[in-house]
Please model this.
Amino acid sequence: MPASGDESSPFGSKDSTMGRFSSLSSKNRRSLIDATRHQIISKRFPRVVFMELFVTARCNLHCPYCFVRNKRDRDMSWETATSALDYFLRECGQAQHLTILFFGGEPMLRMDFIKEFVPYALDRVGQTGKSLSFDMTTNGTLLDVDSARFFARYKIKYLLSIDGLKEDHDRYRSFSDGSGSWDLIVNLLPMLKRYQPWQGARMTPSPESSSRIVDGVKVLYERGINQFIIGSAHGMHWPPESIRAYFEQMQALSDLYIDMKLENKPFRLTIFERGNLEEEADKYMNMWGCGAGRGRLCVNFDGTLYGCSKLMTITGDNTGLLPLGSLQEGWTNALNRSVLNDASLRYRIKCRDCKLGNECVGGCPAINWEETGHVLMCGPYHRAFTALYQKLGDYFYNRWIEKTGKPPPQ
Ligand code: SF4
Ligand code: SF4
Model:
């Protein structure tokens, strides 16, 4: 076996390798370093199967709890989007099915761009023998017959952001003149259901609306929403009485959900089920962390790479949390990607003895940062809601058994 540094080594002698390296131009040296670093990182981390495209930093609403803190007049160019697609195809390895999420800002402000990009991307990915689907989260205010038809044609699943009752939705989800957006969206629902019969909504209860969540769900169900993804607003102060009200409402919702399921109604509450419209992060349930920087990647309008859009935008300045690199240079920050991929308690000192550890998977790193200034250290908001969901899970499990005589389906 030749010793390393020996002329007969398959790696060449150290001197000759260094000699060849230093004879390269600085530009070629740089590309060689980038390519090697990229290869090492690609081998070490999971394949990317879910890509968020941050197509615009603009939005037509002004919701104070939106985690996109740095709304600006910036859009993703065609060149960036097509390079992102090429990058995705390189990074997905053997994965057969890929998903792109259009995100922003309000992605529908880029409807012309989306209309051009979708057929292009389907064709490009189709040539590789893989399949591609699209998701989108939208505030719904720009939907019309033309866009609904387009989404139906290309099977683009969109999730509407609606916060329950009109008064609760309009309190925060308003246009720049202060007027609310509830009427506009709800009036569109009959038309939307003709093109996408199953309608999903993301509901974000705030401390003010925490005692009216059930009413909000019922009203929206009557108007045509079938599936609800409910997550409390963060970045706001939650007094104990609002957390209590939220818990009571979620208990009542779990009863409603069980009754609706037993009656075979077209109704889903994602919190009581496995799987949702952004299922990637779920793959990593029961291990520490989330999908960000593992199977999930977010491309900013300028081609910089992050684990997800929340990590990218929550800081409100030009640099988000744990940047991973750029389309031009690839994965340049292996340390940040390691932090996102670390499934151990090595850096999570507080978690080691935490009694919530059996249920918790470490919290959202972006929300952790917002609360404590540290991505791997949770704060009181996360602890309160983790304990709440733990109790809610027990409540739901027992109620399901009481009503059906058997455990809920997994
Ligand atoms: S609640 Fe906080 S300290 Fe406890 S396990 Fe979860 S992240 Fe760790
Ligand atoms: S960092 Fe937070 S928002 Fe981003 S994927 Fe993880 S849990 Fe979700």
Observations:
- The domain at 47-297 is CATH 3.20.20.70 (TIM Barrel).
- Residues 108 and 142 are 6 Å apart (CA to CA).
